[in-house]
Fold:
Amino acid sequence: MILDLFGLKGKVAIVTGSNTGLGQGICRAFAEAGAKVVGVSRRPSDETKEMIGEAFHNVIADLSSCEVIPSIVEETVAKFGRVDILVNNAGIIKRQDSLEFSEENWDTVLNVNLKTVFFLTQAVARRFVEQGTGGKIINIASMLSYQGGIRVPSYTASKSAIRGITMTLSNEWAKYGINVNGIAPGYMATNNTEQLRQDGERSADILARIPAGRWGTPADLEGAAVFLASAASDYVNGFTLAVDGGWLGR
Ligand code: NAP
Structure:
């Protein structure tokens, strides 16, 4: 039955940034599809735990440094016995005119959005190879994986690079049965866009350009995430799928 291909029963997923926004929605959707979920977050993911219950385990870690990576993988295996899916969702954005943009705003964003993503992905892929099971990696990209944006140079650099390494890693790891893909959310109503949504003019400009006529929500991303985490996407490799209400096509 075709819908069985989308099920995640028996799978174990790691989702970063599990306390709020898009990451919380992905955790909830994976659990509903049958997976056990390890959510990684800086602040406790208590609300997510309440939504999901026993199938959810929270690892507290600050992803601005790679030091936390071994313990994330070890704790996942200790709790649920294996790893099958990784969603690199945690991400930050710093807005400042490029003429004034600080080195700190550059490094902070690149560390969380790119460096830790690469090395966590490497650690999980090593585990997939060791298990001999293959696996699924989903990188949360952005419209700014395709476009330049305004006043967000480090964010655009990180998200363009995420789309690039999604292809690189896919080229190297497809032979192990590892699917590496990305999801590029459009403009979604979460903490990440709060500042933007409070700027009346920018907010109205953005809304006017979205063909679907509304900002996205975490629920809008869930179907694409479950698809890319499941056997239904076994022959999808290295692609970053836009979930954007039509933004990129405009
Ligand atoms: P969000 O509500 O701000 O969530 C970001 C998540 O990342 C939070 O869980 C946050 O934890 C976590 N995080 C940030 N820095 C961290 C660190 N150093 N260590 C551990 N966790 C950290 O934003 P969101 O919209 O759900 O964003 C999720 C992903 O989607 C991000 O990669 C973002 O770039 C991407 N995205 C969002 C949009 C959008 O329109 N919202 C569009 C395109 C792409 P704290 O709550 O503790 O900070």
